[in-house]
Amino acid sequence: MINKIRKNHPKGVRHEIKILLSYGEYLSFSSKLKAVVSPDRYSMDNGDYFIRSLYLDDIYNTAYTTKIAGTDNRKKYRIRCYNVSKDVIKFECKNKYKDRIHKISFPITYEQYIMFMEEKYDFLTGIEHPLAREVYGLIKKSGLSPSVVVDYDREAYVHPLSNTRLTFDKNLRSVINSYDIFNDNIRSLPVFDNGSVIFEIKYDEFIPAHIVDMIASLRGTKMSLSKFCMCKDKLLEVKKI
User: Region 215-231: what's the mean pLDDT?
Assistant: First the structure.
C-alpha cells in the first residue's frame, strides 16, 4: 500500500495518508504498532483523547466542494478543543497540497470563542497572527461561518524518525443540533455504522522502513474523503428528513 519514499519537500509541509480500517483490523494492528512506537504526549490514561472541531465554510461552500472535487490546493478552517476543555482552544487552517499538508494555528481564549460565536469578529484584528487577519478577511469577503461540528476519539503514537505520527480516529460523529462546541446538550450521530476506524500517517520525508512493512499488510482502503465532508454529509442527510 505504501511503496515510495519521498524526500526533499519544503520545511513545514508534511505528507498525509489515510486508510479506512475495519474495527477488527484496527484492534489487531494497534496492538502490534504499540511495540514499536510511543504514545503521543497528549494521550490520556486510557490512551485516547477526545477531539471536537467546529469546521467553517463560506457562502459558496468552498471548503466542502473543493474537497469533493479533489482540488489539489485547498484550505479548511476550524476551531478545535480537546476533551471539551476551555483551557486550550485553537483556531486552525489546514492547507492541503495534493498528498501534503501544512497546518497553522493560533490560540484563542474562551471569551474570544464566545465573541466569534456571537459574530463579534473585531477581536481578530487585535491578534498578531497572519491567520487571524486571513480569517477576518474571509468573514467580511465571503461569509466564513460555522458549517458542522465533528467529534471523535483519537489514539495517537509517534516515532522520532522523520517526525512520524500515527493516529487512529474512532467513533467519528457528526453533531446535528448545534455549532457550539461547548454546548452541554449536544446531539450527534455516528458516521460509520460498523465501527470503522480512520488510520492516518503523517510524516516529513519518509516513513520508517519497519513501519512501512507493517502498513503494507493492511487490508484497509486508502481513502481521500475528509472527516469534515463525511460529517457534513451526515448533517445534510438529517436535515432532509
Answer: 92
Exposure of 150 in the CB half-sphere (CA atoms within 13 A): 22
Which positions ≥6 away from 1 have C-beta within 8 Å?
Answer: 19, 215, 216, 218, 222
- Per-residue pLDDT reduced to its tens digit, 67-122: 999 898 999 999 999 999 999 999 999 999 888 999 999 999 999 999 999 999 99
Instruction: Look up cell 478545535; give the residue.
Output: 80
The pTM score is: 0.92
CA distance 174 to 31: 28
Give me the count of residues in the chain.
241
Task: Write the DSSP assignment of the chain as a string of letters.
Answer: ----------TT-EEEEEEEE-HHHHHHHHHHHTTTSEE-TT--TTSEEEEEEEEEE-TT-HHHHHHHHT-SEEEEEEEEEETT-SS-EEEEEEEEETTEEEEEEEEE-HHHHHHHHTT-GGGGGGS-SHHHHHHHHHHHHH--EEEEEEEEEEEEEEETGGGEEEEEEEEEEEE-S-S-TT-TT--EEES-TT--EEEEEEESS---HHHHHHHHT--PEE----HHHHHHHHHHHHHH-
Strand partners, 89: 81, 108
216 neighbors 187 (Cβ within 8 angstroms): no
